[in-house]
Each structure stands twice: as structure tokens, then as C-alpha cells.
């Protein structure tokens, strides 16, 4: 069966966005999700009321995750509950003390976190996978590198106990050829991680962040990694408008996978 795995930075609600405020976008976001029918979506910059808007209009999705700080945005995972059962999961913070909520280290400009979940297919319970969704800092390069290492150590620990196909995705605030992505591409070769990028460094994909302009010049800063044994048949940055509206200041990205 073919399934889609998406990452969507949906832009936190800001009065500075003018006509692009969330209230004008959420119906288009839901329409896009209903059209593409992803199995799982890793979201970034989502407040509770935002995912409630999405869940109300998409019907089949549930959300898992907590805000990075009380009343703030988070990186919840949305999943199709008609196809998937949530087995376990958790949240941790990208800091020296990842189990302490709202903790921050390494001159990170913002509190950063990761939400992860383990799923099984309802029609085939022994078919399982894990997904890690995060949003790396946009200012501190050190926080990017140290933060993603916290995530990769968690993947390594879980896979050491029981290996499962794994997805790592999110807004990394780092381009394909950046120091952060170069570091990630080295670390993920560890035998207990063993994931690879949706992007071929020899190809041009264009930008995934466009600031509501529709620009496609540049390199993506949103990423999806997946276990090397998985059969990915397509990778895409979705740039079309829905109802003549940009969904966010980032384009959704996705892979189509044979699971």
C-alpha cells in the first residue's frame, strides 16, 4: 500500500500576517489535507486551537503532543485514526535536561522540543513504525546541532531495545548543504539509526520557506528522513495554493512510501 508522510510548518497565529492570518488559512489547510490524505503529519508551530480547527474539518485525524511551554506552540503529530493505532509516544525538550519541560540550552533563541510516537496499522497489528517530529532553533547553530543530537540519541536508544522503521521530520531551519544537515547526514549512518534524507544533494528542490510570497528560489529548510530499507517512491514540496491561499509561510513537504 502507498501512504504519504508529511511535514507541515503551519505558521503560528500572528496579527502581523495581515490577510494570511490563521483564520483565513485553516479551511485551505484542511482542504489540502483532505485532498492528499496523508497517513501522518508532523506539524510545527501549532497551537491547540489550530489543530482543533484542522481536526474538526478533516474528521479522520487525531493529534498527539504537548505545547513546548504552557499555552504555547508545539510540534504535535496528526495521524489518520482509521488506519493507525497509537501504541506509545512521548515528548522531550532539546536541552541538556530533555525530560524537564520548557528547558532550554546552548543559547537557543526559543524553547525547542520533539514529539515522537509509535504506531501500528489497525489492519495489520505487527506492522509498526516510529515517527519523530521536531523544530530546530532558527538562531543558534550550536542549538541546532546539539538539539538534533538529543533527538538522534533517543532514536538510537529506542532502536537498541527494538528496531522499528523510523521517520524523522520537521523544520530544521537548515538548508541541504548547511553544517547542521552535513552533521545529521553523518550521525544518521549509525547502525541503530540508519535513516536517510528525502533530498538528493545533487538535485535542486527549491525553497520550502517562502514567507507567503510563493517564491521557490533557494533550498529547503524542512526535512524528512526515513529508514534506508523503506521503499520511498516519491518526494515532493507542495507549492500549489488551495482556494487561492498559501497554506503557510512554509510549503508542505512529503514522501510517498510503500509500506
Describe this structure in words.
- Helix 3 (141-161) runs parallel beside helix 4.
- This protein has a single domain, classed as Deoxyribonuclease I, Chain A, CATH 3.60.10.
- The model has no long low-confidence stretch (mean pLDDT 97).
- The protein has helices at 22-36, 48-58, 141-161, 179-187, and strands spanning 2-9, 40-44, 61-64, 77-80, 84-93, 113-121, 124-135, 166-171, 195-197, 222-227, 231-237, 253-258.
- It has a six-stranded mixed beta sheet with strand order 3-4-2-1-12-11, covered by helices on one side.
- Strand 7 (124-135), helix 3 (141-161) and strand 8 form a beta-alpha-beta unit.
- The relative contact order is 0.17.
- The protein has 259 residues and is an alpha+beta fold.
- It is globular, with a radius of gyration of 17 Å.
- It has four helices and twelve strands; from the N terminus they run βαβαβββββαβαββββ.
- The longest helix has 21 residues, at 141-161.
Amino acid at each position: 500500500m502507498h501512504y504519504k508522510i508529511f511535514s507541515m510548518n503551519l505558521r503560528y497565529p500572528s496579527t502581523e500576517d495581515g490577510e494570511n492570518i490563521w483564520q483565513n488559512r485553516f479551511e485551505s489547510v484542511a482542504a489540502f489535507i483532505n485532498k492528499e490524505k496523508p497517513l501522518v503529519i508532523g506539524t510545527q508551530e501549532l497551537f491547540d486551537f489550530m489543530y482543533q480547527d484542522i481536526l474538526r474539518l478533516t474528521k479522520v485525524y487525531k493529534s498527539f503532543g504537548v505545547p513546548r511551554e504552557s499555552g504555547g506552540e508545539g510540534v504535535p503529530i496528526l495521524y489518520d485514526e482509521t488506519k493507525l493505532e497509537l501504541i506509545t509516544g512521548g515528548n522531550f525538550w532539546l536541552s541538556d535536561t530533555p525530560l524537564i519541560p520548557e528547558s532550554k540550552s546552548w543559547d537557543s533563541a526559543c524553547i525547542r522540543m520533539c514529539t515522537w510516537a509509535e504506531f501500528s496499522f489497525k489492519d495489520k497489528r505487527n506492522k509498526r513504525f516510529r515517527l519523530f517530529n521536531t523544530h530546530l532553533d532558527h538562531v543558534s547553530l550550536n542549538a541546532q546541532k546539539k538539539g538534533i543530537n538529543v533527538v538522534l540519541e533517543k532514536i538510537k536508544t529506542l532502536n537498541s531495545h527494538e528496531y522499528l522503521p523510523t521517520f524523522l521530520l520537521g523544520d530544521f531551519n537548515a538548508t541541504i548543504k548547511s553544517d547542521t544537515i552535513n552533521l545529521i547526514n553523518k550521525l544518521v549512518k549509525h547502525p541503530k539509526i540508519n535513516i536517510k534524507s528525502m533530498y538528493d544533494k545533487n538535485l535542486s528542490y527549491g525553497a520550502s520557506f517562502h514567507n507567503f510570497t510563493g517564491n521557490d528560489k533557494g533550498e529547503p529548510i524542512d526535512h524528512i528522513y526515513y529508514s534506508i530499507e523503506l521503499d520511498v517512491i516519491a518526494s515532493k514540496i507542495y507549492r500549489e495554493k488551495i482556494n487561492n491561499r498559501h497554506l503557510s509561510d512554509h510549503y508542505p513537504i512529503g514522501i510517498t512510501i510503500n509500506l
